[in-house]
Design a protein that fits this description.
α1 crosses α5 and α6 crosses α8. By secondary structure, this protein is an alpha/beta fold.
Length: about 230
């Protein structure tokens, strides 16, 4: 995933970014509300990790501004304020989750994964497409009872396709998800990744293909297979 961290405390931002890196996610750090809002308006992020106390505003207003601007990116508030009132205000302002500092890294990643999953209409951590089971919690793919061996890039492509199942994703979506603006290659590399991923899936599904090409637009994962 590609995550926007809106946090002015260097040590906390560093801790969050390291936790994301360990899970293979990309991130961008904004130290002010203004920089964060500019980033979320311009970039394609899977989620925003948001502090409440910012030098030029507060997270409550930040979330409200996002929702009023029709920005539906998932928001996880991470704050040292633990009162019920703060939690309620955050959720009513448009946040999707609330985590109190100090936090455990595993809890952060689990909370983040959960809100992104729910935002895309998935109630379970396992997303099933035909015989393909993508387990977002374990970062693994099963075909029936057999584990499918994928590279990190292949897994994250299938993860994104599964989260947005039924929606056509452009190559820009994949590039942003895989590289997060860092050393981005030419978009044709996505065709190469998709080709390899399709072959691995077909080898274990009897030749069935669940990743469909939408000519001139991109790729989409559907429950119905083609050969």
């Amino acid at each position: 995933m590609n995550i926007l961290i809106v946090e002015d405390d260097y040590m906390i931002a560093k801790s969050i970014s390291m936790a994301l890196e360990d899970e293979g996610h990309h991130y961008h750090i904004a130290n002010t509300a203004e920089d964060g809002m500019n980033a979320v308006r311009e970039g394609m992020y899977d989620a925003v990790i948001l502090d409440i106390n910012l030098p030029d505003g507060d997270g409550f207003q930040f979330a409200k501004t996002m929702r009023r601007g029709q920005i539906d990116t998932s928001v996880l508030v991470v704050s040292g304020r633990a009162s019920v009132t703060d939690r309620v205000v955050a959720l009513r302002s448009g946040a999707d989750g609330y985590l109190t500092k100090p936090f455990d890294r595993q809890e952060l990643i689990a909370s983040l994964t959960a809100i992104v999953r729910r935002a895309n209409g998935h109630s379970d951590s396992r997303i099933i497409t035909g015989p393909i089971i993508v387990d977002l919690a374990k970062h693994e793919v099963m075909i029936g009872k057999k584990r499918l061996n994928l590279t990190s890039k292949e897994y994250h492509i299938l993860e994104l396709l599964s989260l947005r199942k039924g929606s056509t994703l452009t190559k820009s979506h994949f590039i942003n998800h895989l590289y997060g603006g860092i050393d981005e290659p030419e978009s044709k590399i996505i065709d190469v990744f998709i080709c390899k991923l399709r072959k691995k899936l077909a080898d274990m599904t009897g030749g069935d293909n669940y990743i469909h090409t939408v000519w001139g637009q991109g790729y989409v994962l559907r429950d119905s297979a083609s050969n």
